[in-house]
Amino acid sequence: MSARVVGGADGVREAAARLRSGLLVGLPTETVYGLAADARSASAVAAVFDLKGRPSTNPLIVHVADVEAARGLARVWPESAQRLADRFWPGPLTLVVEHRGNLAPAVVAGGTTVGLRVPAHPLARAVLEESGVPVAAPSANRSESVSPTSAAHVVDSLGPWADELLVLDGGDCAVGIESTVVDVTGEVPLVLRPGMITLEQLRAIEPSTCMTGPVPVEGVLRSPGQQERHYAPRAVVVLVESLALKSISPSGKDAVLSLTVDHPPGNGDTSGARWIAMPQDAPGYASALYRTLRALDDVGVERILVEEPPVGDAWGAVHDRLRRASVPVRKGME
Ligand code: TXA
Ligand code: MG
User: Fold this and answer.
1) For 56-102, how does the pLDDT look when each residue is reduced to its tens digit (9 = 90+)?
2) CA 250/CA 154 separation, integer angstroms
3) Measured between alpha carbons, how far is residue 257 from residues 241, 247, 280, 307 in Å?
4) What is the pLDDT of residues 252-292, one digit of tens each?
5) What is the pTM of this model?
6) Which of 178, 211, 287 to mutate to test the pocket of ligand 1 (most atoms within 8 A of CB)?
7) From the CA of 138, which ligand is nearest?
8) 218: exposed, middle or buried (Cβ count in 10 Å: 0-12, 13-18, 19+)
9) C-alpha 91 – ligand 1 centre gap (Å)
10) How many CB atoms within 10 Å of residue 56?
């Protein structure tokens, strides 16, 4: 049980060779690290579900080198898909389209659609080009925990369960939260999972784009990101309004992620609570969020008080992840 971290051009070559021979790779992308496998190989894909402890009803995102490769996996390529791809690929956008049946059935959870993405990270692109393989890659963490945004996170998350996992080191992920997922199979584009490509940005290209809620379709979740508890650290996360935060006295087992509130008078310095000033812009906040949650788990914080970020389009994805992280653990889930 172990993981090995590699980098550079040699790392890319080794990662590509492994993917071609049906093995798994920890792959950097600009959003989060993925657990990558050849999406056409039933056994490689089965190993991904196994290692993640992921329910078989949750389909995986398939990563490809360019729009042409995406079209080669789609049965139907709507005009809206083309317009969104032209604007946002390579980048943190996943498009759900009908698939052509040329992927391992488990990738699409036995359904008729597939989520496709052309990532922007240079090492991800190099591996996709070098391997020539469509790469199924969910986030490289055990199901329901915080997605990894560095190679070290992948080793921490999966090393104990992996049999010689190769992790390609691409540094810290710039975006830091998972891609925006948009279903373009219907009359209007539907955002299944918010991300740093916002609703307003999508509407600038496709004005009819709508948000959707957690709607299970034919027993298959339209989006794994729609499970209620997801992206959650071990510590309990509590969302607190700015005003309320000013009057709270955190204990030494608490941490505070603040935006506008300074150490509250009289206790910030003396209680021992970790008081972390988060970036005030949404992209900066998103980029730091998972790394911060993991670091707090590592030092054994029991409760994380999070100052509610502003409302508005730019903060939509951050709100989504904080809300999911703060859902209480259901009985029997952990
Ligand atoms: O940023 C990302 O998307 C990262 C990196 C590695 O690319 N990947 C990721 O994968 O977050 P995962 O498996 O943790 O999240 C899976 C997402 C779901 O939220 C869902 O929206 C989407 O994949 N998905 C995949 N196939 C789908 C399908 N056929 N129908 C609906 N959603 C699908
Ligand atoms: Mg995930």
Assistant:
1) 999 999 999 999 999 999 999 999 999 999 999 999 999 999 999 99
2) 31
3) 12, 15, 11, 6
4) 899 999 999 887 555 445 567 899 999 999 999 999 999 99
5) 0.92
6) 178
7) 1
8) exposed
9) 14
10) 11
